[in-house]
Write a structure and sequence with these properties.
Type Iii Antifreeze Protein Isoform Hplc 12; SH3 type barrels; five-stranded antiparallel beta sheet; 2 helices
Length: 252
């Protein structure tokens, strides 16, 4: 009987002192040894979850694998009791979300901003990139068969890597590229589709009437650009827009 009474008294004392058995969420109030609420400290795992959600929400492409490592939290401290919310943003202007990334977290308690915490980590992003299927030489115009897609860690590659084959097809190489090398925007430039001396068809249309004449290209030209073309019949030079490698159009 005496043992039962002692157990009841012990449980009553624990309940009156407000002893906390678990701390599983932001709403849980940690207590000091005296039993008085002293505040709460946000677990690092919660910051890491928010960090990962932020990164994933801003990478819109499908089939991308993201790995976060070397995660650190700077400035985490004891906060008053209450419901905690986080607002994350990038301090730097650069929007790159791979490699070393640093975010700022505004920590609010009961919707009142309380502190600013710095979150940082290394982001490895594995994405499909454009690679050369063979050795490509300077001045070559790229065709689809020259390329293939491969998944690589873009966090360790130059930021202007190509992730779509259509970004490269039809462009000219500024320098040699080795087989299996990843292609970058800076390697490429527009290729002229007509050159001085090429023979083309000059096309003119107005009010449903279509007229054509043979012409000679007087300067290299790119798709959609206006260039000088000589009418091979009249020997008159005109300005015409490049439609393809065999046609230019005179606009009225």
């Amino acid at each position: 009987m005496m043992k039962f009474v002692c157990s009841v008294l012990l449980l009553t004392c624990l309940l009156l002192s407000g002893f906390a058995f678990e701390a599983k969420s932001f709403d849980t109030v940690e207590t000091s040894k005296t039993g008085n609420p002293s505040g709460q400290t946000i677990p690092e795992s919660l910051f890491q979850d928010a960090f990962g959600e932020y990164i994933n929400s801003r990478i819109e492409k499908d089939n991308i694998e993201i790995i976060i490592s070397k995660f650190t939290v700077t400035g985490n401290k004891m906060l008053p009791a209450g419901e905690v919310s986080l607002k994350l943003f990038q301090k730097e202007r650069e929007e790159r979300l791979s490699g070393y990334v640093r975010l700022i977290a505004i920590v609010s308690v009961d919707n009142l901003p309380r502190t600013e915490v710095t979150l940082s980590g290394w982001i490895d992003v594995f994405d499909s990139v454009v690679c050369a299927s063979r050795r490509l030489n300077k001045g070559e115009v790229i065709i689809k068969n020259d390329l293939y897609m491969a998944k690589k860690n873009i966090s360790r590659l130059h930021p202007d890597i190509l992730t779509d084959i259509n970004q490269a097809v039809g462009l000219m190489l500024k320098h040699d590229v080795k087989e299996n090398d990843t292609l970058k925007e800076g390697m490429l430039k527009r290729a002229p589709i007509v050159n001085r001396g090429d023979m083309v068809t000059i096309l003119a249309e107005m009010g449903g009437i279509r007229v054509t004449a043979p012409g000679r290209i007087m300067e290299k030209g790119y798709l959609g650009e206006y260039i000088r073309v000589q009418n091979a019949v009249s020997k008159r030079n005109i300005n015409a827009r490049v439609i393809n490698d065999s046609t230019v159009m005179v606009d009225f």
